[in-house]
Design goal:
With 483 residues, the chain is α/β, with parallel strands linked by helices. It has helices spanning 3-8, 37-41, 47-55, 86-97, 101-107, 110-113, 116-137, 139-143, 154-161, 167-187, 203-216, 241-249, 277-285, 308-318, 325-333, 352-360, 362-365, 409-417; strands at residues 62-66, 145-150, 190-196, 224-231, 234-240, 258-261, 295-297, 323-324, 343-347, 368-371, 388-389, 423-427, 459-460, 471-475. It is 36% helix and 13% strand. Pathway: Lipid metabolism; fatty acid biosynthesis.
């Protein structure tokens, strides 16, 4: 089986009995899901896919970005449960973790979800569940994926997606990592500070003087250093809380435009996390890591992994090393002038990585989409029935009054929608017209579609039953027609 076919068959690898017999650390009981079996089986056909990938145009390729800790929110996963095998994925996670991760993700409370020991597994599983949604909606994206990267704990999800490790092994490693980091963070009052600077900002000087301030307070071996390189002039600084408070109070001195505490429990990616190294290294030692079937970039170096032994070394080192995300974005999207950029999909909660990509590479961001994990949260008090229409169905719609000035009904609908896309008026049906050859969607959607990948160029036709309207407005997502 070729790698390309294996990627297209992503979801088929989620089956029972997936753990390897060569692993001797405490694995989940039989019945846990093996997400990446078909990806692993494709390793034998490695040379063939390389040739096929070379023939693919850059604009036809895709890149997957996996978010990290801090993106979690109560309700994540609710928008994924209607897709095949997602509930099975959460059931397997429950057996690995020993608690109901789905219940915690859906209902919180937020303070429990924000705890490192919970949010890292939650983001990991939600991201891979989002991959299942993407595979269901646009299988070609998985088939044509050429690179993946994950922010901090998201790197584990990227490696599982790429077939470097199995889902159960990856989740178990994340569990041990989260528990060890939680324990390390509770030992010392510490945190992380997001800093938006300017070209003249003095990050190095600021961190050095913050450490000197801590020494005057009697703190031995104070820590204050850059932990995340996000995009030009934007950093996340980790360290003792006293150092971070000093930086916030003196931000004007170092030309910081804005500072904000990150909702995490410790100074991650600094030497304060050294107690977490041994437990994680012990787990990774017993995992049979494989070479990723797509390029996966390391947080530590920004470069793609070349050998499985590098994965084991750098995943451990990552815990106490800064995340070089800005460098990773440059490595993935660097290309000759005039060359098309791949389609980029952020799979998981939040859109932070998309925002960072926009600041790192505006042209690459224009092909960015987010795979939403939350249920549509607008107009939930109204019932809508949605039908999916393709370009070929457009001639069958009775169009009228397209964008006829600020007083038109189309203009009014655009203001209500807020999407700023072109609107048309169409007749609405209780059933799709016979000429369209369509059938009703299997399950009605609530609210209008607000985000997420769209298959080809589509229209969502909402039927507003509360007003029994004879017509409705349909938003043409022209900006997503290349997704």
């Amino acid at each position: 089986m070729s790698v390309r076919v294996a990627r297209a068959a992503w979801a088929c690898g989620w089956r029972a009995g997936g753990h390897r017999s060569t692993s001797n650390f405490p694995l989940p009981p039989p019945g846990a899901v093996d997400v990446a079996e078909l990806l692993r089986d494709a390793a034998a056909g490695e040379e063939g896919p390389r040739v096929a990938a070379a023939r693919r145009l850059p604009g036809q390729c895709s890149v997957l970005l996996f978010p990290g800790q801090g993106s979690q929110v109560v309700g994540m996963g609710r928008g994924l449960l209607r897709y095949p095998r997602v509930r099975e994925l959460y059931a397997a996670a429950r057996r690995v973790l020993g608690y109901d991760l789905l219940e915690l993700s859906l209902h919180g409370p937020q303070e429990d979800l924000d705890r490192t020991v919970h949010c890292q597994p939650a983001v990991f599983v939600a991201s891979l569940a989002a991959v299942e949604k993407l595979h269901h909606l646009q299988p070609a994206v998985i088939e044509n994926c050429v690179a993946a990267a994950g922010f901090s704990v998201g790197e584990f999800a990227a490696l599982v997606f790429a077939g470097a490790m199995e889902f159960c092994e990856g989740l178990y490693a994340v569990k041990i990592r989260a528990e060890a980091m939680q324990e390390a963070s509770e030992a010392v009052p510490s945190g992380m500070l997001s800093v938006l600077g300017q070209p003249q900002s003095k990050f190095t000087v600021a961190c050095r003087e913050a450490r000197e301030h801590c020494r005057t307070l009697g703190i031995e071996n104070p820590v204050c250093e850059v932990a995340n390189f996000l995009f030009p002039d934007c950093r996340v600084i980790s360290g003792h809380l006293e150092a971070l408070h000093y930086l916030r109070k003196n931000s004007y001195k170092y030309h910081f435009r804005r500072t904000k505490m990150v909702p995490v429990s410790g100074a991650f990616h600094t030497r304060l996390m050294e107690p977490a190294l041994e437990p994680l290294a012990h787990v990774l030692k017993d995992i049979d890591l494989k070479k990723p079937l797509v390029s996966v970039h390391s947080n530590v170096t920004g470069n793609k992994y070349m050998h499985p032994k590098h994965i084991r070394q750098l995943l451990v080192q990552q815990v106490v090393s800064p995340v070089k995300w800005e460098q990773t974005m440059h490595a993935i999207y660097e290309r000759r002038k005039g060359t098309d950029f791949p389609k980029t999909f952020e799979v998981g909660p939040g859109k932070q990585l998309g925002t960072i990509l926009k600041s790192c590479n505006l042209q690459a961001w224009k092909s960015y989409s987010h795979v939403a994990v939350l249920e549509a949260d607008q107009d939930e008090d109204q019932n809508f029935t949605s039908y999916l229409l393709r370009d070929s169905d457009l001639p069958h719609l009775q169009k009228s009054r397209l964008d006829q000035g600020p007083g038109s009904r189309a203009s009014n609908a655009q203001r209500r929608c807020g999407c700023r896309k072109r609107h048309v008026q169409v007749r609405h049906w209780s059933q799709p017209p016979a000429c369209s050859g369509l059938s009703p969607t299997p399950a009605p959607f609530r609210g209008r579609l607000t985000s997420g990948p769209i298959t080809s160029r589509v229209l969502w036709c909402p039927l507003d039953t509360s007003r029994n309207s004879l017509s409705c407005f349909v938003c043409i997502f022209s900006s997503l027609e290349k997704v």
